[in-house]
Amino acid sequence: MRGTQRKLTTIFCADVQDYTRLMGVDEEGTLAMLKHYRDAMSRLIEAHGGRVINTWGDGVIAEFPSVVECVRAAMDVQNELAGQNATRPLDGRMLFRIGINLGDVIVDGDDIYGDGVNIAARLQASATAGGIVISNTVYDQVRNKVAVGFDFLGPLTIKNMADAVPSYAVRIGEGTTQASPPADPRPGIKAKPDVDAGPQAKASSALPLQAWPAIIRSMFWLAALAAGVLVAINVLSWDGDFWSGWAVLGLAVLSALIWAAIQSRYDRLLAVLGILGLGIAGINVLTWHGTFWSAWSLLGIGIVAGLYKIFRR
């Protein structure tokens, strides 16, 4: 075809499990929930450098220049939506299935077509509710680069394609498949039931990520209590030195950095830069001698954040 453009890209495909049932129970409420969840999904996709290509019915298709960032975005999506679903009754939860494939596609304006997209859609259909299934082309790129495990699901038959596609389930929280894998059909490669990405991967599997928000809230309350106790001791033993200010600042910065590492609402690097800027400004205040020396540091952090935003786009 003259004028046809092709490219290699990572395709992200998602839809809602039991969408028809949800619509039958409450059409208006389901549509409002779908819009809310799609907005969260679009925000996380863009935060990881992806682009939403199309939405139809209950589905979403996006593409990413980076395979690793696509998988990370999918994990963030499932973790955030799981946290929101936790406040809903079991029969009213909206659970997405996600399929990811790396493949060559045809580009037509803002849309993409071809087997690469069809494979992603088929992977999505085979995922569990709240789960992620990836193709072997994605697995080969991310297996040593993301702190999660994988379960080999075997070859997946794709309509109108002669060769089946080996697929893997990503282990995240409760939405993963823990079944023992069959042999990998690719010659010379032995399938593994779980790719060990180190201590981080084991911690990720042992503790569902949906539990982190409650843990972080508890840590914040403990940090606030400790800061309050230190300030009270400082006041009751006052000798003209506000020494507890350093401890309060340290607890605040540490708690904020932990929050930045776990949260998925804002870009993590920008959140860390903002926290460091506030920490430096706090040090300036606690050591105040009439000079606002932290202005230079804040300017540098602002420049780094601006350049990051520009090049990220």
Show the helix and strand layout.
Layout: E1 5-16, H1 19-25, H2 27-47, E2 51-56, E3 59-64, H3 67-85, E4 96-108, E5 111-113, H4 115-126, E6 132-135, H5 136-142, E7 150-156, E8 165-170, H6 199-206, H7 212-236, H8 244-262, H9 268-286, H10 294-312
Parallel strand pairs: 4-6
Antiparallel strand pairs: 1-3, 1-4, 2-3, 4-5, 6-8, 7-8
Structural class: alpha+beta
* Largest sheet features: 8 strands, mixed
Identify low-pLDDT runs: 174-211
Distance N to C terminus? 31 Å
Nearest-integer average pLDDT: 81
Give me the Rg, rounded: 23 Å
Instruction: Please estimate the helix content.
Output: 40-55%
Q: Care to count the β-strands?
A: 8
N-to-C order of helices and strands: EHHEEHEEHEHEEHHHHH
Total DSSP helices: 10
Shape: elongated
Proportion of strand residues:
15-25%
Name the descriptors.
10 helices, alpha+beta, elongated, 313 residues, single chain
Description:
With 313 residues, the protein is α+β, with helices and mostly antiparallel strands. Helices cover 50% and strands 18% of the residues. The longest helix is centred in the last third of the chain and has 25 residues, at 212-236. It starts with a strand and ends with a helix.
Compact description:
The chain is α+β, with helices and mostly antiparallel strands.
